[in-house]
Amino acid sequence: MTTLNSSPSPPAAASWQRWVWWLLAAAFVGYLPFVLTDRAAFGVALSNMQLLNLGLTQINLMVIAMLGALSLNYLTGCAGLISIGHAAFYAMGAMTAAITGSQWGWPFPLVLLSAAVTGAVAGLLAGLPSLRVRGLYFVLSTLAVHYVVVYVFLEYQFKFFDVVGVPYPAAALGPLEINTPIRWYFFLVPLLALVYLGLRSSLRTREGRVMMAMRDHELAATSVGVDVRILRLKAFGLSSAIASMAGALYAYYLTNVTSEAFGIQFAIQFIAMIIIGGIGSLPGSLVGAALWLLLPSVIAGFAAQASGSTGIVRVLLVEHRAQLVQLIFAVLVILLLIFAPGGFASIGRQIRDRLALRRKQG
Amino acid sequence: MLAQVLFSGLALGSIYGLVALGFAVIFKATDVFNFAQGMFVVCGAYFAVTAISLLGLSFPLAILFIIGAAALMGVVIHIFLIQPLSGRPMLSVIMLTIALSIAMRALIEMIYGPQGRTLTTPMPTGVFLLGDLRISQLHLTAAVVCWGCMAVFGGFFRYTSIGLLMRATADSHEAAVVSGINVNTMNRLAWAIGSTLAAVGGLFLGQLQIASTELETIGLLALPAVVIGGMQSIPGAIIGGLLVGIIEQLAASYISPKSSDIVIYVLLLLILMFRPWGLFGQRELGRV
């Protein structure tokens, strides 16, 4: 069964050491956007391949995807509800943002809030079948919800806008416009940290632990007096509120979105992220989202270098790059499912345990 | 007008029913909800392209090639992907079939190019009039062949000893093992049958439209078909397929072409809310 890795790192590490690591990580996160914008670190110019062909835009999209992966992992990994309709809540958020932001001209923070609220309401509605059906049937109901929401988005888009898509105004926090990738980065990363810490601490409350008990054994949880129906709806509401907010951010960041953007592929990518990262592991969701969003651009970097070469390399990297990326991810997911069902989180845990063991022996 | 719509709905519905039947055989035997069934349909279409256009086989040989390749594909997938995952949580198995379909799509687009290919077979393509009903011979052939396949497999499960063994295995793995049935062989057979039925559907869909990876969405209509019919019921899958075909055609001509999918998924949602065991399935009782 999936386990939640929320226990702090091994007791061997002294607490000051952990503080040093946290500071280093924070410094890295704070300095990264400047490296990627200036294409240089500490005054030393870096080549494109040394930066893995990454730009700040990919990083920002990755942070938005991390919000989606976190919320899905909370729902699937921690509450045990499988959803293949997660893109629907992204679409919900994007649609709400189009109504309140593009049509009514509300300020950006209010738009985000309204997206989160409609997302929560939509999540409660979409979670209603969970009161009646279990397992596979519930998975299918999320799939049906996905098709319904995307269709509504399509009708909305064609009624008020046209085939080009829904345009979004520039984001602004009061007088400060969020108009450069760096500003977006420093808006998104604290938001991600907030959501991450919020989810983590909510899992450590009584209700969070009860929720995981419900995931592990629903009947046992019911028998000790937990109303699993309410709990399930709550988890669904919270998860879709976050996903919906991420959808609004996604739409504002791209400044233009069509209903096709939220196809079933979009929903599947989040499941793939949490399987790669590790189901039930919040840090794993971040790893999965990072791999999913950054690997294509790394491969594109190799492709740019290989454009002069010939033969099979050229065919794979240049002509069929999109398919190659898909194939790599699909094979990665299949291999992980067969050999490491806990994803990278479990692999990381195994390595850590082995290192700790060796340190103890040596 | 209505008769015309009903005819094409029935013809398409027969193909969906065939694909859904394959889906239900796999689900009943191995409890795998196969999201790659849509890709199996696409594979069927591309096997036909390979046999007819690339290898230049004669039509009967091409049919044998398609059936053989599809059955082999089902067996290989069961041995290397499904069997290692037996007993795992549902999400793992679902995601495995989804990842499988992504990989298959990527491979097909790498080998055959991302554009679709036209598929030409010696099957009749003309149109004849029955009253004022315009009957496309290809639609009619598809319907007749699909009903023939369903009858053959219905008889196979009902009257042959292997069919009996397969039904017994699907009913209870443990009891089958105790009675000396090789469960793995039976499951592989189920996967072979499931992918072959999808491939036959793909052969027709590929000719009615063109052979492209976009056929996957049509193939995936087998999912709502199976649920509407009742997941544990083989006749339910066929009737579900027919219903989906007819409803889709009705919605496309009387509401709007865009709305056909959504009507089916709304129906799916309603069925799940009010009759989750489907129209023909048996209500599952939870056991403590």
pLDDT averaged residue by residue of chain B: 88
What is the beta-strand fraction of chain B? under 5%
**Category from helices, strands and their pairing of chain B:** mainly alpha
CATH structural architecture of the largest domain in chain A: Orthogonal Bundle
Question: What is the SS-derived class of chain A?
Answer: mainly alpha
Number of helices of chain B: 12
Q: Unreliable stretches of chain A, pLDDT < 50, 5 or more residues?
A: 1-9
How is the main sheet of chain A built? 2 strands, antiparallel
N-end to C-end Cα span of chain A: 32 Å
Please give the number of β-strands of chain A. Answer: 6
Taken together, the total number of domains of chain B comes to 1
Give the overall average pLDDT of chain A: 86
User: If you consult CATH, what is the topology of the largest domain in chain A?
Assistant: ABC transporter involved in vitamin B12 uptake, BtuC
Any overview of this molecule?
The complex is a heterodimer of chains A (362) and B (288). With 362 residues, chain A is mainly alpha-helical. Chain A folds into two domains: 26 residues, no CATH class; 308 residues, ABC transporter involved in vitamin B12 uptake, BtuC (Orthogonal Bundle), CATH 1.10.3470. Helices cover 73% and strands 4% of the residues of chain A. Chain A has 14 helices and six strands. In chain A, the strands form three sheets. A two-stranded antiparallel sheet of chain A has the order 1-2. In chain A, strands 3-6 form a two-stranded antiparallel ribbon. In chain A, strands 4-5 form a two-stranded antiparallel sheet. The longest helix of chain A has 27 residues. The N terminus of chain A is likely disordered. With 288 residues, chain B is mainly alpha-helical. Chain B has one domain. Chain B has twelve helices and two strands; from the N terminus they run H-H-H-H-E-E-H-H-H-H-H-H-H-H. The longest helix of chain B is centred in the N-terminal third of the chain and has 29 residues. Chain B is globular, with a radius of gyration of 19 Å. The mean pLDDT of chain B is 88. Classes of the chains: A mainly alpha (362), B mainly alpha (288). At the A-B interface, helix 5, helix 10 and helix 13 of A face helix 4, helix 10 and helix 12 of B.
